[in-house]
Amino acid sequence: MRWHRRDHALLSGLMSAVPRQYERHAQTFPTLSNEQIARIARHGSVRKTRHGELLYDQGTEAPSFFVVISGAVNVVRPHKDKEDPIAVLGPGQFTGEVNLVTGRRSLARARVIEEGEVLEVDGDALRALVQTDSELSELFMRAFILRRMNLIQLGLGDAILIGSHHSPSTLRLREFLMRNGHPHTYVDVEADPDAEQILHHFGVGVEDVPVMICRGEKVLRNPTFEQVADCLGFNVAIDVGVVRDLVVVGAGPAGLAAAVYGASEGLDVLVLETHAPGGQAGTSSKIENYLGFPTGISGQALAGRAFTQAEKFGADVAIARSAARLRCTERPFSLQLSTGDVVRARSVVIASGAQYRKLPLERLADFEGAGVYYAAGSMEAQVCKGEEVIVVGGGNSAGQAATYLAGTEKDLKTGEDVPRTTHVHMLVRSTGLAQSMSRYLIRRIEESPRITLHTQTEIEALEGDGHLERVRWRCSATSTVETRPIRHVFSMTGAVPNTVWVGSCVALDDIGFVKTGSDITPDELAAAHWPLQRPPYLLETSVPGVFVVGDARAGSVKRVASAVGEGAMCVQLVHKTLAE
To answer: Which of 83, 298, 542, 549 is the Cys-Cys partner for 507 at CB 3.0 to 4.6 Å?
Structure first.
């Protein structure tokens, strides 16, 4: 099979419609060789196309993968009564982005603008191809990821979120979409002059915000994560009749590692995630001490790649699907979901992680999402741009947040480096930063003129009307009390395990972290009716076949690298228990 090159002048004219913002164009829209196309052809079929034919539309479920043999295909984002250009594909180029691997609905529309031929491959065949052909897998995955990154950067998605920067619910939904890597357009009712017209068009008012509009059709008023995930097609239907080899609860670094290694080794894996891939690590602006990334990588980027990698190998990842209860006395194990569905598995990995401990303040709930935050990423930085902020905590997460917020970023209008905030106040209860904080972060905090460390200091009160306006703190060393007009507090103190759903199924420590291996006492094993002659494996709980990895495990090292290592190592132990 051979394809024929079209007139270069015509192709250049068509490509002029492609947005200039696309970077690394040759990798984002590569041209396949004849030999590569021949290998792909074994997994699909060639058919003729006609001018104006839709290969797929925005919202198409499980769209096919197309390689252009001859002719040309225009890829656009439908928007109101017009189409936003994304790319024009010529001979040897191919359609699709990350949605082809994850099995989600198409975000774009692909129309034939010059008749010819295409090679069509369905989603299952494509996923089989990327698992068996390493060269094509690298080429496709790089292009798919870069295309998704560009769609996010340009806001070319199938969702519009209309909200207010004063609304905690708006912040919650923006974070959900951003951390799930879903391109969308955000319209602020206070800042965008078109907001009222858009609301009127869809029959909703300002009092209904935040409002989510899916594919220009379905309107959701202040939706839950589950409603957004269903509307945007994040998840394929979970077959509750299937007994999985492994169910992983939590898609943080540990859970995603377990999913990648389990699926790549042939296990039928289902991952349940309440919010978004990455866990606490996913909120980190930059991780610089993770092996293999000398310039650092954001938690969201690392999680997004691991998520795509897990689905590439065949793991099913269900977003906005929480485990509500583990029934460990049944075989196979049963997990009741927040939706009421029950899934069954021969083995379970608890990777539900931990969350920051909440400050013991009277009005904390009033200001969560409206001045009090538990993550410090680009979105939160936009909210507090040009203001003073407080970071509470002395560990690595607090250090990363402080240095990020005290740093600079490019101004989109002038191109100059501008500070994200005017000043960062770090508040810690002890006499200094935690001994567990990485030395490179301590040095940066000490050397930054925009960070002030307040030791032996705690917040006493939060004040404001609707949004945080003032903070009162006390220094125990001097007994001095200060009230500052600071509107943004980033709370990153301690850790509370997300293990309520486990109940009394497995042995826990006094705080609620799950005990494993030799840390489980003989009395605890007896109380759990441990049935085997062997003791629990290193990462195994007091119930055979139930494992725990990452931050939810008692005694774990709170580092991304160790979490990934535990997730990978755990799969070998899963294989052993499945063979028993």
So the answer is: 542
